[in-house]
Every structure is written in structure tokens, then in C-alpha cells.
Amino acid sequence: MTARVGVRRARPEDVDAIVDLFVAVVDEGRWLGTQPPIDRDARRAQFVEAIEAPAGIASLVALVDDGLVGHAHVDMTPYNVAGLGMMVDARWRGLGVGGALVRGAIDAARDMGAHKVALQVWPHNDVARRLYLRHGFVEEGVLRRHYPRRNGELWDAVIMGLVLDETSPGSGF
Ligand SMILES: CC(C)(COP(=O)(O)OP(=O)(O)OC[C@H]1O[C@@H](n2cnc3c(N)ncnc32)[C@H](O)[C@@H]1OP(=O)(O)O)[C@@H](O)C(=O)NCCC(=O)NCCS
């Protein structure tokens, strides 16, 4: 089954559902950089800020039958690389929602004038890594023993990038 998924810019009325989704995915404990506990009010304020930002940030939601099932955040750096983070409700994974969000996020990054989209992913997140590879990202390297976790572990992270501008000159030396 493929979900009939729509992707659009998030609106203020989406924020409670976005926070619920974020808390649920963080609580899975395996996929995101953020670790529990979550300060819901602080997160709520951050999501509202992202939605209301005049430029440089795209907050996208994925909807199935008007229900919010996914979220992507695209954030331009001052050097025109767009950072990407995303999550899909566990009950709706494997149905194409993530693919729709990645495509929406790449379009948003292009619209913002990004020459590249960049992200980091845990090495064990095979589904996410395959999803990004399918959409043209390449694995650019590994940050070894980089991120401290609350349990004392040091996790590696895979750096992935999608170059949008292949025609500007590269470094000339
Ligand atoms: C990573 C994540 C966003 C992917 O979202 P998703 O909705 O499951 O993505 P898709 O459904 O588009 O693709 C996932 C798989 O389902 C398959 N799929 C997509 N549509 C399908 C369909 N109609 N029927 C069967 N399989 C399908 C894809 O081929 C893919 O398979 P693969 O992993 O074997 O290559 C999601 O797993 C998630 O939110 N994980 C937790 C948070 C997270 O890891 N975020 C990213 C941090 S970097």
C-alpha cells in the first residue's frame, strides 16, 4: 500500500501534532539526536518560531487524510547549505511518506537558493540512509565517536549531502 500523502508548509494549528510526533520519535530512543526528556513548551515555541520565520527555514508537514503523519525541517546556513531533519510517525513508515517529505524538503531548499542539502544520520538508521541515497544524497564521511549520549556511549554519525549546484566552479587549487 502506498499512502496518499500530501506535503505542505506547516501552519500554527499543526504545532501540537508536530510536538506529539517529535516526543514520540524521541522516545523511540534510536533515531534522533535529541534525547528525552523533552521540554514540550520550549519545543512548541521552537516549532512556532520555525513556522513564522520570514525566510531561511521551511517547516513541512506530511498529511494523510488530514492527519499529520510526518514533519521535515529545512534550515539555511549563512553559507547556503540547507540542513535537513525529518521524522515520520512509526505507524506510517514504509508507505512513501518519508519519500514525499524528502522531495518536498529538496524543493524547499532549492527555492531558498541552497546549493546543497546536508544532514547527519546514525549509522544504524538503515531505512533513513537508504531513503536519502535513493534521493541522490551521497555519504560524505563518518564522524567517529562524536556525539555523547546520556548513557555514556559515544555515537558515530554519517554525514550525507545532496549537491544541487554542480555547475559553479569548485575550489581552484
Ligand atoms: C527515516 C524515515 C523518515 C523514513 O520514512 P518512511 O516514511 O518510512 O520512508 P518511505 O516509506 O518513503 O521509505 C522507507 C521504505 O519504505 C519503502 N516503501 C516506500 N513506499 C512503499 C510502498 N508503497 N510499499 C512498500 N514499501 C514502500 C521504501 O522503498 C523504503 O524501503 P527501504 O528502506 O527498504 O529502501 C522514518 O523511518 C522515520 O521517521 N524514522 C525515525 C526518525 C528518523 O530516523 N529520522 C531521520 C533522522 S536522520
What attributes does this structure have?
globular, alpha+beta, 7-stranded mixed sheet, 4 helices, 29% helix, 173 residues, binds coenzyme A
Explain what this protein looks like in three dimensions.
By secondary structure, this protein is an alpha+beta fold. It has one domain (5-163): Gcn5-related N-acetyltransferase (GNAT) (Aminopeptidase), CATH 3.40.630. The protein contains four helices and seven strands, in the order βααβββαβαββ. It has helices at residues 15-28, 40-52, 97-111, 126-134; strands spanning 5-9, 57-64, 67-76, 81-88, 116-121, 138-148, 154-163. A seven-stranded mixed beta sheet has the order 1-2-3-4-5-7-6, sandwiched between helices. Helix 3 links the parallel strand 4 and strand 5. Helix 1 packs across helix 2. The longest helix is centred in the middle third of the chain and has 15 residues, at 97-111. The chain starts with a strand and ends in a 10-residue tail after the last strand. The model has no long low-confidence stretch (mean pLDDT 97). Bound molecules: coenzyme A. Coenzyme A is lined by residues 1-2, 25, 31-32, 86-88, 93-99, 119, 121, 125, 127-128, 130-131.
In summary, what is this structure?
The chain is α+β, with helices and mostly antiparallel strands and 173 residues long. It is 29% helix and 34% strand.
Contiguous runs where pLDDT drops below 50 for at least 5 residues: none
Give me the secondary-structure category.
alpha+beta
> Given this structure, which CATH class is correct?
Alpha Beta
Please give the count of helices. Answer: 4
Q: Total strand count, please? A: 7
CATH superfamily: Gcn5-related N-acetyltransferase (GNAT)
**Order of neighbouring strands in the sheet with most strands:** 1-2-3-4-5-7-6
Number of separate domains? 1
Radius of gyration: 16 Å
Percent of sequence in beta strands: 25-35%
CATH fold label: Aminopeptidase
The hetero molecules present are: coenzyme A
Name the helicity range.
25-40%
Main beta-sheet annotation: 7 strands, mixed
> What is the N-to-C succession of helices and strands?
EHHEEEHEHEE
Mean pLDDT: 97
- The CATH architecture designation is 3-Layer(aba) Sandwich
Q: Name the shape in a single word.
A: globular
> In angstroms, what separates the terminal alpha carbons?
50 Å
